[in-house]
Each structure stands twice: as C-alpha cells, then as structure tokens.
Amino acid sequence: MLKAVGKFIDTLPLEKLLSQGEHFADTVTIQIDRYYGTHDMTKFVFIMRGITESGGETETILENSASDGDVIYLLWKIGKNFTTESGLLALDMLACHYEDGDNSTENEPDVIIRYQLPPVRVRALPDTNHIIDAQSHTDFLLQVQNEVQNQLTEINSIVEQFRSDLAITQLDERLETLEISESQLLDKVETLQKAVDTGTT
Known about the structure:
There is one protein chain. With about 200 residues, this protein is of the alpha+beta class. The chain has two domains: about 1-130, Sandwich (Immunoglobulin-like), CATH 2.60.40; about 135-200. The chain is built from one helix and eleven strands. It has one helix at about 135-200; strands spanning about 1-5, 10, 25-35, 35, 40, 45-50, 55-60, 65-70, 70-75, 85-95, 110-120. The strands form three sheets. It has a five-stranded mixed sheet, with no helix packed on it. A four-stranded antiparallel sheet has the order 7-6-10-11, with no helix packed on it. Strand 6 (about 45-50) and strand 7 (about 55-60) form a beta hairpin. The longest helix has about 70 residues, at about 135-200. The N and C termini lie far apart (about 125 Å). The mean pLDDT is about 85.
C-alpha cells in the first residue's frame, strides 16, 4: 500500500513490483487524507498518469474504494499500458473536482491537485537471444564430457609415468644396495684370507 503525506506519495513499495508485459497483475491501494486544505477529497476524481522513457503516455481513473474517517483508499489497477515498456515509468496522480458535482472527465475541472510520486522501474523481459535450445544444450554437454574424459586420460597417463619412474628409482636403489653388500662381502673374504695366510706362516 502507498500512503500520501500531504501531496507526496513514496513509491518505494513498488520498487520490484512491475514487469514488462503484465496486465492487471497488481492492484495497488493508495491511502490519502480525506481533506486537503478546505477541499473534501471524496468529491474528487483521481487519475493516475504514466509516462515511459520513450515519451509514451497512459492514464487510468482510480477507484475510490472506501473512506474511513479522515482517510480515503484508492485502488490503482495497473493495466498493460503502464508496463508496455521496460525502464523508468514517471507517475503523476491528479485529483480533479468538477463544478456542480459533474464528474465527467470531458469537462474542464475547476480544481486540480497533483500528487508527487517518484518514478518506478518496470523490469525488462528476459533476453531470449541467450536461451539455449535443446540440441545446443546436448552438444554443449557432450563437449564438456569429452573435455573431461581427455583431461582424465592425461592425468592417468601422468600417474602411470610417475609410477614407472618410481619403480625404476626403487630398482636402482636396490641394485645399489646389492652392490654395496657384495663389496662388503669381498672385503670380509679378503680379510679372512689374510688371516689364514698369516696363521699358516
């Protein structure tokens, strides 16, 4: 619901309400004071005007739904002409009084009161150029799967190469250990041979 403070109506509650192409999707209640100065606003006709960024104009008569003491409730049924274009929508609410109670909008009003409303934004329709069809979506998934499979194959190849290199390294270390053991054994044999030769002498 929008509330008027004097002749100012804050449109913040409409910030994310309107979308392009909607038609009577929303009805907004506007609360105003029954009296403005010496004027009884129950005797006025209220008109909401909208002006798009491209200069398009539209208007609609607001329904006076109820009055409660010093307050009046107006209903704004938002038709498609207010949401034809996306972007900023300037708003202008008029209260018109016609002489002798003739509220026909064909005549010139003898009193006009304008309410100030900040512009609201109409959300644009989604850009259908970026919508992917079923075949393109399938092709994209296959491409991703192939890329993933190629990456996995490359990773497995690297792992196998690493294992092979590790096995060769371990084998080299084992052979080196055996060579050391053989050298130590030969040293012991030589030592024993010297001992035998010395004992014989």
